[in-house]
Amino acid sequence: IIETIKKGYLAIALARLLGKLCHWGYSKIHKTDNKTDASIFQYIAKYTTPLLPGLKEHGEYDLAISFLAPHNIVKDKIIAKKKIAWIHTDYSTIAINSKMEFKVWNAYDKIISISDKVTKTFCSCFPVLSNKVIEIENILSSEFIRQEALKFNPTEYYNDRLNFCSIGRYCYAKNFENIPHIAKSLIARGVNFHWFIIGYGNSEEIEQNILETGTQSHITLLGKKNNP
């Protein structure tokens, strides 16, 4: 929210606060039963989506795919003959506002599930939507990944230390820039470790934080790897 205000999007920041406030009221009434409370994202999406730019001025598309939640954006901001939403979540592990969630999913022509478990838990929450669900598993098979892993032994590995390895793009969503601060905390606790980071993108902030925290001997940026 602070970053949003700094960038000048005050209305969106206020909408996010309104969403958090409404979620707080909802969560006071409905207990989560030890599940992860995901309903906050529903409320934030509900109040911020109307303020976001859309693509309606470009006319009608043949197909619009919403690959990640919140699915409100493709639902409300794009005109298309057909709309598909992807589902990656095991609904037995999260708590949601079912009525609010149903309205979003029901607006799509098809819902793509990534596994049998995801399909079953989703349909148990929304049995009326079962006829819309199609299952498409991950294209990369687990067997292929295991074969790739056996092709080499990492030369950077330390036998006398605990080895961490983070893999992904260098971007805000991955939170890699926070690794040096976590590493500093581990050093203070006396943990003997080394942290490797495989990925690509702008590494300037990560490198700066490594220098500021003095964790150069505990973190190694390996860059991009064809076979991570």
What does this entry look like structurally?
With 228 residues, the chain is α/β, with parallel strands linked by helices. It is built from nine helices and nine strands. Helix 2 runs antiparallel to helix 3 and helix 8 packs parallel to helix 9.
Order of helices and strands: HHEHEHEEHEHEHEHEHE
Regions with pLDDT < 50 over 5+ consecutive residues?
none
Shape: globular
The gyration radius over C-alpha positions equals: 22 Å
Class derived from helix and strand content: alpha/beta
Cα distance spanning the termini = 34 Å
Tally of DSSP β-strands? 9
The biggest sheet, with number of strands, parallel, antiparallel or mixed sense and barrel status, is: 4 strands, parallel
Mean pLDDT: 91
**Secondary structure: helix percent:** 25-40%
Strand content: 15-25%
List keywords for this structure.
single chain; 228 residues; alpha/beta; 4-stranded parallel beta sheet; 3-stranded parallel beta sheet
Can I get a quick summary?
With 228 residues, this protein is an alpha/beta fold. The chain has helices at residues 2-6, 10-29, 39-48, 72-77, 98-105, 116-125, 142-149, 179-188, 204-213; strands at residues 36-37, 61-66, 80-87, 94-95, 110-113, 133-135, 162-167, 193-198, 219-223.
Question: How is the topology of this model organized?
Answer:
Blueprint: H1 2-6, H2 10-29, E1 36-37, H3 39-48, E2 61-66, H4 72-77, E3 80-87, E4 94-95, H5 98-105, E5 110-113, H6 116-125, E6 133-135, H7 142-149, E7 162-167, H8 179-188, E8 193-198, H9 204-213, E9 219-223
Parallel strand pairs: 1-4, 2-3, 3-5, 5-6, 7-8, 8-9
Helix pairs in contact: 2-3, 8-9
